[in-house]
Amino acid sequence: MAKHSFIFPLDADSRAGAVKPFREGDTDFVVPNMNVSGAAELLTNLPLKATEVYNQYGQDRLGDVLISKVRGYAFADKAGSLYVEESDDGNSWSTVKSLDVSENALGDTGWVYLSKRYYRFRYVNGNLEQSDFALYQSLGAGEQDVRVSGGLESPSLEIPADGLPVKALKTNITQSYLEEQTIKAGESVYLNIDALGTSIGIAIYLNGNAKLSVRMTYIIPETSNYTLKGYEDVIVLDNGDRDARRVELLSSSPRLMLTNNGETEVKVKNLVVTHFL
Prior knowledge:
Blueprint: E1 41-44, E2 53-55, E3 59-60, E4 67-76, E5 80-87, E6 94-101, E7 107-108, E8 112-113, E9 118-125, E10 133-141, E11 145-147, E12 156-158, E13 173-177, E14 181-183, E15 188-192, E16 199-218, E17 232-248, E18 254-260, E19 266-276
Antiparallel strand pairs: 1-10, 2-9, 3-9, 4-7, 4-8, 4-10, 5-6, 5-9, 11-12, 13-19, 14-19, 15-18, 16-17, 16-18, 16-19
């Protein structure tokens, strides 16, 4: 593996890694010499093929020790994207944090605070096959933190002795849709959303540059496809692979239309919707 300003111990195949399980001694932990505090557990170091996805098995954080936050580190010789996701049931997942990982650079999600029972890390490789890849997680336990509304990146607060008012416990909710969805040239896909607040953030991530538009209208209550008004542009990609916008809502039933305006098919990494409460 190439040498960089950060170092991980090598495994038996000379790839950056560590031994699992991680509960059997100090040698099972990886301590990088970069700005990465604490111990990191190796999740995988098997290189991914082009557009291949690694999904960690859902982890139950409500064990003997409550896991309150997680942190992910990814290194690869080809660019990709790292996602921290959580779930109430281990089946339906929403994105808490996403990170674009540049080639030959260590990507760090920072500490991500969790509110649901299960969590997992998901890594989506780009359009080129990897030769080197390593994905690590760090866990933080037993801290009393809450997330407060106010933006995509919310600060954490310590809970005072007399508690917090209920309204201070509101959190922004992020959901992920259309993962690995293919849209053929000239065609559209549709997505109905139940909005939870007065505005939503919409972020689109594609596997490569493309011409694609994200337009929005509102569904008339108790109908499947009758709309209140015509579709309006939210995001227009002329030759790009990502963009994000925040939209003030007129109704709690927005409907999105994603249209491939190019001449070749488009593959969506995912569409991320953040509900601002």
